[in-house]
Design brief:
The complex is a heterodimer. Chain A is built from 4 helices and 20 strands. Chain A is α+β, with helices and mostly antiparallel strands. In chain A, 54% of the residues are buried. By secondary structure, chain B is of the alpha+beta class. Chain B has 8 helices and 12 strands. In chain B, the strands form 2 sheets. In chain B, strands 5-10-8-9-7-6-11 form a 7-stranded mixed beta barrel, surrounded by 5 helices. A 4-stranded antiparallel β-sheet of chain B has the order 1-2-4-3, with helices on one face. In chain B, a hairpin with a 3-residue loop joins strand 3 and strand 4. The longest helix of chain B has 17 residues. In chain B, 45% of the residues are buried. The chains are: A alpha+beta, B alpha+beta. Chains A and B meet through strand 15, strand 18, strand 19 and helix 4 of A and strand 1, strand 2, strand 3 and strand 4 of B.
């Protein structure tokens, strides 16, 4: 079984659940930005939850199947077409040798996940098949997909069947205005009081620099840091720190101008103060934000963050149960 | 706080529900870095269930955990306990000292500098001339002698895969400090030796960068294919805590080394070494000489 890339789309790559364990060497987690969509897509086609799939961004790829198989598409709201005929989303369907899978523009949401029974069988590097572009390894030759690529597919499991569906009511609704819950902290105390308020009251617009490394937000009031004598080694700007590790999901504000949320391919550290971190339960939602969508940062405490995490686990478990049949 | 003493008490702050960020000190110092290394090593040794990433940085460290396995406050308690236990001990580190050859003033970073002169503080001089001047060295050669004269600690690995940040093991008055470019370059040759603030780095891959460029090393430090003898264990060579001695080389040696790298036969000089913070702080220059004996005395 192999899949040929006819058109690569805007930024398409092979991703699985990611590559934890090497962050101290500057190797980020990588993995599907919308982990939930990856998980459902895999379960729909009878794969292990963490099998590798294809992540498409804004403009999805066009694919040619060289063999028969079973496919499922989850994530952003875009028409799925097989040889031009519309196919259901969030439901497994059959493909035959010679079939072409294509997509319309994503109306809502920014990322689709295309899983195929058996999973994308690229080599495992440091425990993962995920593409890490800056390091040029993982995925297919360590890069985004291009026209002419051939993706090997593994052997389908006994659980693969067509017509398996996710109940859409159990999926989070996509929206152009997304609340993102943030735990203030890290260097939050270095903000002037006026900025500790405006960060959470302004609407922030996703800018054009929004990729697997990070999302940059515009349109809010620039943040002001307290003036101080720069500590040795930090740099002159009040937003500078002695270079330190960046938590995944943390929000840094270079020069106080535009918040940047760091995602799964982010640089692992640097010299900009971070003012808080998006909680784990909301990271998948960032992945589905398009440029020009709006975010409201909502401050939460650790208790609320852990409650949101539990809610998400419960919802995912209901879906796991529903799809295990 | 004096740069010669250990920072008193760390600042703990959660990064969402999966990270604990620990700032040992607001300013950079060897004791701050060293304390972070020691805590990270002890945490690694304890193999705490639910702790998934342990990332030392310059004067801070970052721990990632799974709150389904261990509660955030338990992670913090564990780290506070370790910090307290290590407080009065004579901190030592089992590490290695490595020689990295450098062609200072190389033609490739020079060409790149010339393309980005309008982003530089002083467009009329080169990066190394500028760094030598603002650090009050009489000449570029004196600057190179100081840069390569005393060893450096790898105080953090990160930014991109395998990129080491290095901090020179000399007293603060002798630290080389330079600003970063006014705005970052979009290009930096692979294996460029850079410097920004008080940190040197080796750019592990080609790409954007804001550090001043002093030279290049012919020795790969990141290789997903792991072709050289010293890359067999992992695609990333440097680990936090490594001690580095730069060795200035000329163009002839650079070319010879590149040929060996291409044949896959090139190896780095590297020796295991034990480092004592206390002994170092008592006599930095003398202690550095002992370290270099370990590297070369065989």
């Amino acid at each position: 079984m192999a899949i040929e890339v006819l058109k690569p789309g805007l930024a398409t790559s092979v991703q699985d659940m990611g590559r934890p364990g090497y962050y101290h060497l500057g190797i980020p987690m990588s993995g599907a930005l919308d982990q939930e969509s990856l998980l459902f897509a895999n379960l729909l086609v009878g794969n292990d939850e963490g099998a590798a799939a294809i992540e498409g961004t804004l403009m999805a790829p066009e694919l040619l199947f060289h063999d028969a198989g079973i496919v499922a598409v989850t994530g952003a709201d875009a028409k799925v077409k097989l040889n031009g005929m519309e196919q259901p989303k969030n439901e497994s369907f059959a493909v035959q040798a010679g079939d072409r899978l294509s997509f319309d523009f994503m109306k809502l949401g920014a990322r689709i996940c295309i899983a195929v029974a058996g999973g994308i069988d690229v080599p495992v590097v440091l425990g993962s098949r995920s593409t890490y572009g800056l390091g040029a390894f993982g995925g297919l030759d360590g890069r985004r997909l291009i026209a002419g690529d051939r993706l090997p597919v593994g052997k389908a499991s006994g659980h693969a069947r067509i017509g398996r569906r996710v109940d859409a009511a159990l999926l989070p609704a996509l929206s152009k205005e997304v609340p993102l819950r943030v735990l203030p902290g890290l260097y939050f105390h270095r903000l002037q009081e006026v900025s500790t308020k405006s960060l959470f009251s302004d609407a922030w617009t996703v800018g054009s620099e929004a990729d697997r490394i990070g999302y940059r937000f515009k349109g809010g009031t620039p943040l002001q840091f307290k003036e101080r004598k720069p500590p040795f080694g930090a740099g002159a700007d009040p937003s500078n720190i002695v270079d330190a590790g960046y938590p995944y999901g943390s929000i840094q504000v270079p020069g106080g101008k535009e918040p940047i949320i760091l995602l799964r391919d982010a640089v692992s550290g640097g010299g900009y103060a971070m003012v808080g971190t998006v909680i784990s339960a909301d990271m998948d939602r960032i992945a589905q934000m398009q440029p020009n969508n709006k975010a409201i940062f909502v401050p939460v405490d650790m208790t609320q963050a852990l409650a949101a995490r539990s809610d998400r686990h419960r919802r995912l478990n209901r879906l796991r149960e529903a799809l295990s049949a | 706080m004096s740069p010669r003493t250990l920072p008193a008490k760390a600042r703990y702050s959660f990064g969402g529900d999966e990270h604990l960020f620990v700032e040992l000190d607001e300013e950079m110092s060897l004791p701050a870095f060293f304390k972070g290394m020691a805590i990270c090593n002890e945490l690694r040794r304890r193999k705490v269930p639910g702790v998934t990433e342990i990332c030392p940085a310059n004067a801070a460290y970052l721990v990632r955990f799974d709150p389904d396995v261990i509660l955030p406050e338990e992670v913090q308690k564990t780290l506070e306990d370790i910090e307290e236990e290590l407080r009065d001990s004579d901190l030592t580190l089992q590490t290695r000292i490595v020689e990295i050859p450098v062609l200072y003033n190389d033609p490739w970073t020079h060409e790149t500098q010339m393309r980005f002169r309008e982003r530089h503080q002083d467009p009329t001089s080169t990066d190394i001339e500028y760094a030598a001047r603002i650090n009050q060295f009489p000449s570029v050669d004196d600057f190179i002698a100081a840069h390569s004269g005393a060893p450096w600690f790898v105080s953090m690995v990160g930014f991109v895969a395998g990129l080491p940040f290095l901090f020179q093991m000399v007293e603060r008055s002798r630290q080389i400090e330079v600003p970063k470019y006014l705005s970052p370059r979009t290009d930096t040759p692979k294996l460029t030796l850079g410097h920004g603030g008080c940190f040197s780095c080796i750019y592990s891959v080609r790409g954007a960068g804001g550090y001043q460029m002093f030279g290049v090393t012919p020795a790969p430090i990141f290789d997903p294919l792991q072709q050289l003898p010293y890359m067999k264990d992992l695609m990333v060579f440097f680990r936090p805590g490594d001690i580095v001695k730069w060795k200035p080389i000329d163009r002839e040696e650079y070319d010879r080394t590149i040929a060996q790298v291409e044949q896959g036969s090139y190896d780095l000089r590297s020796r295991p070494v034990s480092f004592s913070l206390k002994e170092f702080l008592a006599d930095p220059d003398g202690y550095n000489q002992q370290l270099l004996k370990v590297l070369y005395g065989d």
